[in-house]
Amino acid sequence: MTDKKIEDLLGTIVETNEGIESNLMTLVREQEKTNIHQALHNGKLLAALERIANALEGKAPKVEIDWDKVGKEAKPEVKAKPEVKAKPTFTHADLKTACLAKSREDVSNKPKLKALLAEYGAAKAVDIPEDKLAEVIGKIEKGKF
Question: Is the full-model pTM beyond 0.85?
Answer without folding.
Answer: no
